[in-house]
Amino acid sequence: MTTPAAAPLAHVKVLDLSRMYPGAFCSLLLADLGADVVKVEAPGFGDGMRAMAAPGSFNAAHTALNRGKRSLALDLRSPGVGAVLNKLVQWADVVIESHKPGQLDAMGIGYTEMSAVNPRLVWCSISGYGDTGPMADAAGHDITYLGYSGLLGALADGAPTPPMAGISLPAAATMAVVGILAALSSAALTGQGARLDASMADAAMWMLSEDVARAANDPQPGWGSFAARNVYECADGRNVTVAANEPRTWAALCEGLGVPELAGHRIGIDADAPVTARLREVFATQPAAHWCAAPGLKGGIGPVNSAADLLDDPQVAARGSVVALAGTDMRVLANPIRFDSAVGAAASHALRQPPGLGEHTADVLAMAGFDRDEVAALREANVVG
Q: Which residues pair with 226 in a beta bridge?
């Protein structure tokens, strides 16, 4: 395995026991920063993301979120798995898991057992509602946590609708990475690792920090849509965003749109519906590209893009935000964090293709100290695939 020497986390080794999106987002961020991520998957089946597309067709989820990782086919339900994990966690700095709270502990392969083998181990559990409380065992998906947290209702000014992208999952994964990096920093100083508890519901709630503070201390209406903060349909059927909440930017917007008579409208005070209706009329006279490029309007008006629109966007191109996997013409999003040349100018380090199921089983086991006969015995016992 080759990792750029300048990669910030080139010294960090991650054992990813998680399944599906939250853990995949988490370990992807770490891999993009240079960490060596070993994805542990069930022999014969693999992670559920491998089944997200029909055989022979492009698997966007697996490609986007599992690129740059290694795959170890290991049956966590096997009676012999404890001995294997004992050696693996001596190699690892970080373990990520997303099982039902307490499940791995009940199997004898949880944090208590593994940290006894490696006291410096940073163990991160990602779950729906966290390890404690009456909801700890409750199942759910992204929309479940969005609804529970209050975020789903806050995303629309009206009846809640299902978002067309995951929100709580990558949010919890990002929070988990922050916690992992903090725990690694502490472990480097103290020699003592930690167990982290990351909740998707908590992550979604965190995005409503202002709303919760308002509700708890000074109940009043929060954000809503109004003329100066809205989405408008244009002549070509595309939409643009308007963000001109301050009197100065609102006046500039009205001037640029050719409706200077609206500049005196007091945002949040005067009747808003007639002003919104007038702006809808104005925006409907020109295509979205016209309004986004109009002199004097940049910053106040922006496009409502689709994922496909981003592929040829000049800003995305200038940032190198969409990159090709090594040796292929497949393009994926790069790590959103940029580093200067002193610590690695590449936008993303994990640009190898996603691994085949169990592709690195033998290599990882050898690295953990198993010889060929021991690996063969583990295969014979169906502990590894």
A: 229
d(C-alpha 298, C-alpha 103), whole Å: 52
Please tell me the pTM assigned to this model: 0.91
The Cα angle at residue 357 between residues 352 and 360, in degrees rounded to 5: 65
Among 66, 49, 81, 45, which Cα is nearest to 353's?
66
What 3-state DSSP class applies to 359?
A: coil
99/22 Cα distance (integer angstroms): 11
DSSP letter for 285, please.
T
Q: Is 230 exposed, middle or buried (0-12, 13-18, 19+ CB in 10 A)?
A: buried
Residue 236 has which token pair?
């070509």
CA–CA distances in Å: residue 330 to residues 71, 267, 327, 351, 354: 20, 47, 9, 10, 11
Low-confidence ranges of the chain (pLDDT < 50): 1-4
CA distance 59 to 308: 17
CB 322 within 8 A of CB 297: no
How far is 211 from 206, CA to CA, in rounded Å?
Answer: 10
Distances in Å between the Cα of 110 and the Cα atoms of 29, 115, 319, 336 are 23, 8, 41, 32
Q: Burial-class residue 341 by CB neighbours within 10 Å (0-12, 13-18, 19+).
A: exposed
Indicate the Cα dihedral angle 194, 25, 165, 222, nearest 10°: 30
SS3 of 379, please? helix
Q: Encoding tokens for residue 301?
A: 């008006």
HEC profile of 58-116? CCHHHHHHHCCCEEEEECCCCCCHHHHHHHHHHHCCEEEECCCCCHHHHCCCCHHHHHH
pLDDT in tens, 19-37: 999 999 999 999 999 999 9
Cα–Cα distance, 205 to 268 (Å, whole number): 26
pLDDT in tens, 62-99: 999 999 999 999 999 999 899 999 999 999 999 999 99
- Supply the DSSP symbol for 197: E
Q: Residue 384 to residues 84, 164, 261, 323: CA-CA distances in angstroms?
A: 9, 37, 73, 34
d(CA 42, CA 256): 59
